[in-house]
Amino acid sequence: IRKIGVLTSGGDAPGMNAAIRAVVRTAKYYDVDVVGIRKGYAGLIGGEIKEMHSRDVSNVLNLGGTILHTARCPEMMTDEGLDKAAAIYKILGLDALVVIGGDGSYRGLAELVKRGVNGVGIPATIDLDMKGTEYTIGFDTAVNTGMDALNKLRDTSNSHERCSVVEVMGRDAGYIAVWCGMCGGAEEVMFPEEKENINSDRVIQQILENRSIGKRHNLVVVAEGVGGTQKLAQDIQEITGIQTRATILGHLQRGGSPTATDRMHASMMGYHAVKAILEGRENIAVAYNRGRYEILDLLESLQMDKELDPEIYDVIKILSI
Ligand code: F6P
């Protein structure tokens, strides 16, 4: 192994820089050349590539975002784009392409593997919705950001005896919502995995019951994938008579200095990715399961199970009486 490429792809996640740093420095430690590819697959196709050395990743461990920049790349949905990306990989003489990104980035990488690329995935998304791994880089920071927001909203909604409806990120998954709900002490959480049980009547009913047991304010967390946050706040106010305010946290949760947990996992995953490449492993995904780092087959990892534990919601309800 003489030369590897590294890129970040899809939505950025705090801790991506820690992973880039770990990939670059582990490779340099073992005398492997590294090129950084800007703006994800778009930069690969566009040839936005530069050599990276240990000093290029100084002072980035603590930074949110990604120093390599990122993009969502529609060209990776076409045969032409995929062929071009694979051709550039070969022209660059890369022995592996390390992709730090989420589910969509892994699926793009799987297509490149079919075209002869040695693809190596490091899981990074604030949403946590990646198969085969219990942990994804960025989730912990995003949840902490959401929890801080809930703490602040609790102050004001308690003072005014109001209800606060807070929308957190999570396009198809409720991990951020239920974690924020639990850690921020929410009375109710609405998340996509509930499917047919997603029901604003239930939330309103709960708020009325809470009033009857002496609760003076309510926090309701809604996952972005459920949506309808403003409307829910209006309905709560109209039906219960309790003043209600909606807050949509949006991209706030994607930024910020990564937590210790994100820095730790990102650093270890970056290290394990390069070690596995040096050991001759091909087409792999780094994962963290049951307290250990694992090297999975990339294509198999995409087929693995992943489910939000419904017990978390049950416990939120028990603890909010
Ligand atoms: O996948 C991470 C995520 O932050 C989702 O929670 C959200 O739905 C999406 O990205 C937003 O994407 P974009 O930044 O492209 O608008």
TrEMBL record:
InterPro entries: ATP_PFK, ATP_PFK_prok-type, PFKA_ATP_prok, Phosphofructokinase_CS, Phosphofructokinase_dom, PKF_sf. It is an enzyme of class 2 (transferase). ATP binds at G11, R72, C73, G102, D103, G104, S105. It comes from the Bacteria. Pathway: Carbohydrate degradation; glycolysis; D-glyceraldehyde 3-phosphate and glycerone phosphate from D-glucose: step 3/4. Its cofactor is Mg(2+). Residues 3-277 form the Phosphofructokinase domain. Mg(2+) binds at D103. Keywords: Allosteric enzyme, ATP-binding, Cytoplasm, Glycolysis, Kinase, Magnesium, Metal-binding, Nucleotide-binding, Transferase. HAMAP family: Phosphofructokinase_I_B1 (MF_00339). This is ATP-dependent 6-phosphofructokinase.
